[in-house]
Design goal:
The strands form two sheets. A six-stranded parallel beta sheet has the order 1-4-3-2-5-6, with helices on both faces. The protein has a three-stranded antiparallel beta sheet with strand order 7-8-9. By secondary structure, it is an alpha/beta fold. Helices cover about 40% and strands about 20% of the residues. Bound molecules: pantoate (PAF).
């Protein structure tokens, strides 16, 4: 496996890499990322991963500074997973000057859910992903469903800007107790880690109730938020939405997903389940 710190070096390698599947990450990798790397291998001759903690997608007061940087351990995991190339630029490579040309995602897609609580977040994600796609020029790019709204925004960006890449979604990988794997789980204390699977449990109850025919979505959302609050969480939202655009469901036969974000102590966790 080769590690590239410059755009020139990555581009030279890409030229002879055949069909490429690309998995962008911010590092601090866990089994969820590695599952995505293995899935990527099924789509291409060569897998290219990137590791870059993207300042543009963090708001003031968020965890950009304390986000774990674990390049050496990450590269060992990537090599074992059969990744061919890692693009690990630093900020002087990705943003040699302030990034003035940026992607502005559709307001309807980013003023809701995560976008309401993290203004500017998806613009930062879309800008770095567009730049990474331009650098790597992959045939396929993979993103996890754990960040469901991110996947929706990026799929729409690729379609509306006619980018020559196929987006593939990876299923969320969970610990045995149901907690969705996330780099941010490392922030949890032992006590919080024991409580954390309740986010998945509460979502599963909403999913099961809707599947069983309970269509009072507002009641289900409100009860689920109240249960988390009673357990000491500070929920930002629990919402049943259409999968396609994450807008409120209008028809009972819409394909749905229930999404949640809630703070446990200092750590903000997100999760979702398709219904
Ligand atoms: O999902 C992530 O880790 C990041 O948002 C991404 C897609 C690598 C962009 O920085």
């Amino acid at each position: 496996m080769q590690i590239h710190h410059t755009i020139e070096s990555l581009r030279a390698a890409r030229a002879s890499a055949g069909k490429v599947a690309f998995v962008p990450t911010m590092g601090n990798l866990h089994e969820g990322h590695i599952t995505l790397m293995k899935q990527a291998r099924e789509h291409a001759d060569t897998v290219i991963a990137s590791i870059f903690v993207n300042r543009l997608q963090f708001g003031a007061g968020e965890d950009f500074d304390r986000y774990p940087r674990t390049l050496r351990a990450d590269c060992e995991m990537l090599e074992a997973a059969g990744v061919g190339h890692v693009f690990a630029p630093d900020e002087t490579v990705m943003y040699p000057q302030p990034q003035r040309y940026v992607v502005q995602p559709a307001a309807a897609h980013v003023s809701i859910l995560e976008g309401e609580f993290r203004p500017g977040h998806f613009g930062g994600v879309a800008t770095v992903v567009l730049k990474l796609l331009n650098i790597v020029q992959p045939d396929v790019a993979l993103f996890g469903k754990k960040d469901y709204q991110q996947l929706m925004v990026l799929s729409n960006m690729v379609r509306e800007l006619a980018l020559p890449v196929e987006i593939v979604a990876g299923d969320t990988v969970r610990a045995a107790d149901g907690l969705a794997l996330s780099s941010r789980n490392g922030y949890l204390s032992a006590e919080e880690r024991a409580e954390a699977p309740n986010l998945h449990r509460v979502l599963a109850r909403v999913r099961d109730a809707v599947r069983a025919g309970d269509h009072d979505l507002l009641k289900l959302e409100t009860e689920a938020m109240a249960e988390l609050a009673a357990r000491g969480w500070v929920p930002d939202y629990i919402a049943v939405r259409r999968r396609a655009d994450l807008q409120p469901a209008l028809h009972l036969d819409d394909a749905l997903v229930v999404l949640a974000a809630a703070k446990l102590g200092r750590t903000r966790l997100i999760d979702n389940l398709e219904i």
